[in-house]
């Protein structure tokens, strides 16, 4: 026992012990104390103002100010993103910032940016109007000139544009100029020139045709330049149009339709000389506006760059202050209204650190009264807290995504450190792919300090957070790849020569009839001669299917064993006697026996049909096994195991609810009793589910709850055993072998007939295969979707159960293997 006492504490195997504490803080030091405790991150406060709405709390105004500053920071981020500017990396040292000064500074920056955006939009709108006017003058002038050249009839009269030339005033905007239209009621042919978005062109023309009943002529030409939207900043493609019509009524309809479709109309004189003069004036004004826009854009980018260099620090400060005031809103004032009282949970080991932080807060605030900290007794169940580091953090997050273990339960993340990457490798094991994945993981680990201080994308951030998960996945993939003897789906003689040889010297060609076994089995993994043989698929499928079942049953057994240690740790004898024992009996009487048969069949090379054995174990337990008998006394053992499985079901269903009812009656009648433990402390150490009080004890609910658990366990034992076959199924769905055999080989055979006989083409074939399959395989490595978490309802009280199983298999092959009629790569 002294040897075990000298062992280091296993901090990660079980959640930390928690203490319920109370803090009494003076108002002047409460803010700094909460800030220091937040930096420590080891105290979870209880909300003592649950009956109050968020607007009725003490520090609601400060929280609103922080929320407003957060809105301004989001606005800055949006502006920086729209300007395509980079945000500076996180600074190593975070100096303190005064919140009042920061609030004023953010307000000034926001006002400045709003003014610059408003001026930029106005300038951009004016620039767009002038640019559109220039485009309309150039394109519509060509259209009008073409119309004049084709006007051959003296009766065809082309009146002036509905916009008089004398209506153009240099002091008016173009839209105002466009509003001054001719009011003449002449009956001659008129025209309207304008510009519209190309996406609306067809609908616009159709609407004009219907509104005028076909009494118009629509002519168009592409603008040739993209116009910048002043609000969104997007480049919009536009089309110049000229509409010829006759009549004042048609003119009104056309103008209304132009306004509805967002088309801009501009006055275009018929005289080509006047058109050129206006184009020159507009070009000059465009140059001035372009210079003004460029200067404003540079000034805006400089302001945004200055904000971007500090925005991460400001965001951190605002989030921290918001969290501090949200926590302060969870506290209550004492009767003197001079102190804040808070309660919460903290790990027992963190109490000295919390006291030190509180003492520093009082010292830095020069408070006359210290902060009072003491422990209390709690009725409710404590929260769960696991200590993690950069290596175990990713595994803990994976487990917590499926469910958090109860207080003081075994931590499944400890086991998933090994089993998660190992089961991944079972599905996608290939030591060539594993090497590629290993190099990527090593790059992430070697640059973790640099990458940790940068803002990463969503995918890169996920990969960086799981860099140690990827590392272990790569290592186990190399291991399982060596076990499967696959390097980009190509086998190699790594551990010695094959155990098979040709029957005669003539089998070196592609028409060999078979190989015979002439030496001991291949030392490690699968013999490379299986590759390309007729029996490759049945043999490997059978092997991997049986491996999946053995792994699954072992993992489920581990879950039940962990439930035993949890029940023993909490002193719950009922769960040990009426859950752990019958569950172990039921699972291993049926499925554990199946795993045993698989191992026995592997060892003695029997040809027994395990499907037949398991089916007739239920249909005809006393029947003769015949050639399916693997060992002496197998029939008697199967009858015994079947009876044990039948007894285990009522064993786990009925006793526990009736014993709990009996104990509850004894408590109600005032009798002195104990739970089925070893001391009087067992009652206090019982978990919440076992400490049943009379006022909330309901026998029907307890019985139904136990019945549901029992049914779920029985059904889950069957369904989860079948689910573990996904390890084999996903292994079969690997695309590397298909891509190698079908795509590349068939392609090369079609392009280069007889390439199998040429060494150069064989080398080219290998290089192309390995390169292509490497790219495909590394991508497929990230398609993992099958890691099994067996919940406590099925296998014990632990929320997830995982298996550490690292066995080195040497496979027992049959006496010979039929060769494929094509080339055999060995």
UniProtKB/TrEMBL annotation:
GO terms for biological process: vacuolar acidification. It comes from the Eukaryota. It holds the Pfam family V_ATPase_I. Residues 99-126 form a coiled coil. It is a multi-pass membrane protein. This is V-type proton ATPase subunit a. One of its GO terms (cellular component) is vacuolar proton-transporting V-type ATPase, V0 domain. The keyword Signal does not apply. GO terms for molecular function: ATPase binding; proton-transporting ATPase activity, rotational mechanism. InterPro entries: V-ATPase_116kDa_su, V-type_ATPase_116kDa_su_euka. Belongs to the V-ATPase 116 kDa subunit family. Keywords: Coiled coil, Hydrogen ion transport, Ion transport, Membrane, Transmembrane, Transmembrane helix, Transport. It is found in: Membrane. It comes from Rhynchospora pubera. The chain crosses the membrane at residues 422-445, 466-484, 547-565, 585-602, 637-654, 735-756. Essential component of the vacuolar proton pump (V-ATPase), a multimeric enzyme that catalyzes the translocation of protons across the membranes. Required for assembly and activity of the V-ATPase.
């Amino acid at each position: 026992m002294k040897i075990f006492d000298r062992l280091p504490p296993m901090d990660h195997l079980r959640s930390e012990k928690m203490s319920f504490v109370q803090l009494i803080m003076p108002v002047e030091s409460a803010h700094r104390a909460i800030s220091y405790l937040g930096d420590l991150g080891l105290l979870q406060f209880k909300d003592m103002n649950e009956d109050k709405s968020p607007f009725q709390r003490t520090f609601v105004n400060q929280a609103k100010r922080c929320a407003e500053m957060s809105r301004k920071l989001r606005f800055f981020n949006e502006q920086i993103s729209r300007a395509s500017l980079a945000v500076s990396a996180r600074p190593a040292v975070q100096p303190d910032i005064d919140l009042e000064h920061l609030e004023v500074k953010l307000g000034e920056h926001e006002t400045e940016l709003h003014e610059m955006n408003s001026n930029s939009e106005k300038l951009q709108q004016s620039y767009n109007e002038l640019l559109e006017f220039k485009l309309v003058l150039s394109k519509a002038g060509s259209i009008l000139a073409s119309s004049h050249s084709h006007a051959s009839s003296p009766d065809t009269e082309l009146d002036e544009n509905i916009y008089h030339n004398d209506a153009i005033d240099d002091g008016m905007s173009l839209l105002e100029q466009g509003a001054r239209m001719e009011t003449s009621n002449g009956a001659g042919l008129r025209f309207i020139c304008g510009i519209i978005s190309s996406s609306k062109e067809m609908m616009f023309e159709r609407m004009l045709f219907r509104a005028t009943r076909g009494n118009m002529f629509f002519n168009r030409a592409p603008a040739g330049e993209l116009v910048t939207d002043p609000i969104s900043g997007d480049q919009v493609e536009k089309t110049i149009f000229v509409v010829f019509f006759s009549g004042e009524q048609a003119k009104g309809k056309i103008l209304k339709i132009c306004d509805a479709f967002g088309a801009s109309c501009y006055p275009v004189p018929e005289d080509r000389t006047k058109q050129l003069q206006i184009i020159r004036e507009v070009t000059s004004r465009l140059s001035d506006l372009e210079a003004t826009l460029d200067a404003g854009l540079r000034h805006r980018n400089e302001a945004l760059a200055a904000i971007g260099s500090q925005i991460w620090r400001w965001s951190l400060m605002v989030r921290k202050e918001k969290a501090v005031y949200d926590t302060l809103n969870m506290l209550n004032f004492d009767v003197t209204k001079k102190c804040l009282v808070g309660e919460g949970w903290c790990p027992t080991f963190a109490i000295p650190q919390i006291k030190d932080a509180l003492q520093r807060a009082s010292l830095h605030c020069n408070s006359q009264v210290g902060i009072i900290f003491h422990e209390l007794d709690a009725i409710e169940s404590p929260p769960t807290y696991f200590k993690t580091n950069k290596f175990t953090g990713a595994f803990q997050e994976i487990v917590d995504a499926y469910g958090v273990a109860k207080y003081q339960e075994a931590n499944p993340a400890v086991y998933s450190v090994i089993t998660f990457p190992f089961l991944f490798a079972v599905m996608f094991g290939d030591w060539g792919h594993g090497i590629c994945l290993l190099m990527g993981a090593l790059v992430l680990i070697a640059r973790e300090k640099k990458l940790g201080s940068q803002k990463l994308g969503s995918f890169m951030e996920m990969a960086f957070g799981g860099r140690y998960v990827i590392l272990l996945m790569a290592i186990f993939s190399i291991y399982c790849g060596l076990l499967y003897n696959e390097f980009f789906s190509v086998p190699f003689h790594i551990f010695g020569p094959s155990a098979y040889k040709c029957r005669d010297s003539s089998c070196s060609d592609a028409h060999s009839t078979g190989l015979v076994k002439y030496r001991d089995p291949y030392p490690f993994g699968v013999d490379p001669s299986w590759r390309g043989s007729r029996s490759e698929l049945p043999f490997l499928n059978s092997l991997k299917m049986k491996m999946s079942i053995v792994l699954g049953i072992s993992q489920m057994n581990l879950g039940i064993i962990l439930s035993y240690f949890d029940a023993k740790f909490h002193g719950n004898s009922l769960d040990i006697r009426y859950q752990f024992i019958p569950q172990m009996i039921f699972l291993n009487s049926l499925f554990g026996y199946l795993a045993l048969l698989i191992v026995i069949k592997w060892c003695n090379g029997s040809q027994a049909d395990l499907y037949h054995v398991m089916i007739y174990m239920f249909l005809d337990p006393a029947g003769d096994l015949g050639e399916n008998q693997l060992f002496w006394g197998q029939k008697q053992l199967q009858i015994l195991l079947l009876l044990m499985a039948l007894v285990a079901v009522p064993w786990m269903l009925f006793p526990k609810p009736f014993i709990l009812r009996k104990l509850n009656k004894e408590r109600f009648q005032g009798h002195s009793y104990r739970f089925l433990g070893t001391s009087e402390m067992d009652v206090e150490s019982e978990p919440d589910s076992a400490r049943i009080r009379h006022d909330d004890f309901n026998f029907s609910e307890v019985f139904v709850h136990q019945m549901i658990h029992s049914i779920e366990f029985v059904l889950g034992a069957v369904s989860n055993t079948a689910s573990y076959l996904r390890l084999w199924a996903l292994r079969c769905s690997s695309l590397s072998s298909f891509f190698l055999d079908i795509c590349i080989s068939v392609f090369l055979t079609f392009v280069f007939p007889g390439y199998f006989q040429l060494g150069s083409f064989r080398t080219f074939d290998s290089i192309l295969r390995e390169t292509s399959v490497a790219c495909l395989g590394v991508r497929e490595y990230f398609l993992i979707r099958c890691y099994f978490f067996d919940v406590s309802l099925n296998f014990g009280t632990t929320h997830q159960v995982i298996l550490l199983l690292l066995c080195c298999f040497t496979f027992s092959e049959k006496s010979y293997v039929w060769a494929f009629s094509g080339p055999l790569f060995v």
